[in-house]
Design brief:
By secondary structure, this protein is an alpha/beta fold. Helices cover 37% and strands 13% of the residues.
Length: 328
């Protein structure tokens, strides 16, 4: 597992991390036992970056992480969490110093730490990115030691570009995968120039790019791939990367032809993301230990050829871009 610096912050992280949304909720039935096994398998494989949020299972994800790390002892991975989505309604005016501090304090308690490694604004309303007072508050929390660094998780490229205008922003989390290629056009160049860490989320397009989903796949009622198919609960771009389901299935069959012999499609899709050197860490989720091990193994795949990369861009341009490129 390759390890490298996390932008300007004093952490070294693996190029593949562990996305802890699935062990919190909104992915159907994932037991706490399976969640613990998945995280342990990821850490055993050399993963040193874990991404969670205070709303994943209303804190369940953070608490599972705390339990696993306490039981393991020894060196800790970098643990990033997020804040803001506990607001109801989720509006810009809710991003006050007092509310943010309350969210941070709750995550400190859930994770059982004195300082958060990284707190990320959790896909805030765009207007928040124009409010200096929000970032001044985060600067103060960093100075007092409640957080070691902060970043922003965004939906849109334009939001990423706006967020990194604030000098204290150390990281951006953004959707980037074979079906969402726009971040590489301009944002990645700016992030690299400013030494901003880039966390690539939804790397498998909610499982589409695992190659295991078919038109007959049934999703549980509490799985966002059922209840958020059209953006009913949150941004539709978080579910299947915003690609219409049937279009995604067609594109997956074209991607499948590019996967090297002996490699799985999920590993191929993760390796594709790591081909862009602006990406600091990619955070696939896992429902169980087997999936976590398979995700970690993607780091060992050989680099993809220029022809393969060009072919994935052609699939994107022909089938996917009309649905997503200008929207996010």
């Amino acid at each position: 597992m390759r390890q490298h610096a996390f932008g300007r912050l004093p952490f070294t992280v693996s190029d593949i991390g562990f996305g802890a949304w699935q062990i919190g909720g909104s992915w159907g039935d994932v037991s706490e036992a399976d969640g613990r096994a998945a995280l342990n398998a990821a850490l055993d494989a050399g993963i040193t970056f874990v991404d969670t949020a205070d709303v994943y299972g209303d804190g369940r994800s953070e608490r599972i992480i705390a339990d696993v790390l306490a039981a393991r002892g020894g060196d800790r991975p970098m643990v990033a969490t997020k804040a803001g989505r506990r607001l109801n309604p989720h509006v810009a005016d809710g991003y006050t110093r007092a509310n943010l501090e309350a969210f941070i304090d709750r995550s400190l308690a859930n994770l059982r730490v004195d300082s958060l490694d990284l707190v990320q604004l959790h896909c805030p309303p765009t207007e928040v990115l124009y409010r200096q007072e929000v970032f001044s508050a985060l600067d103060d929390f960093q100075k007092t030691g409640k957080i070691r660094g902060y970043g922003v998780s965004v939906e849109k490229v334009e939001e990423a570009l706006k967020a990194i205008e604030f000098p204290g922003v150390a990281s951006i989390q953004i959707i980037y995968n074979i079906f969402r290629q726009r971040p590489a056009d301009l944002f990645f160049h700016e992030a690299k120039r400013r030494n901003i860490a880039v966390i690539a989320r939804v790397p498998l397009a909610s499982g589409l790019l695992s190659g295991k989903i078919t038109g007959e796949t049934a999703f549980a009622a509490d799985d966002h791939r059922n209840f958020n198919r059209n953006g009913e609960a949150f941004d539709v771009g978080e579910t299947f990367a915003g690609v219409p389901f049937e279009v995604g299935l067609l594109a997956v069959e074209e991607v499948r032809k590019l996967v090297p012999a002996g490699a799985g499609m999920a590993a191929f899709a993760l390796r594709w993301i790591l081909m862009n050197e602006a990406v600091t860490v990619v955070i696939p989720g896992a429902r169980n230990a087997e999936q976590a091990k398979a995700n970690a193994a993607a780091s060992d795949l050989a680099p993809l050829s220029a022809d393969v990369m060009a072919a994935t861009r052609d699939i994107y341009d022909r089938l996917i871009a009309p649905h997503v490129h200008q929207r996010w």
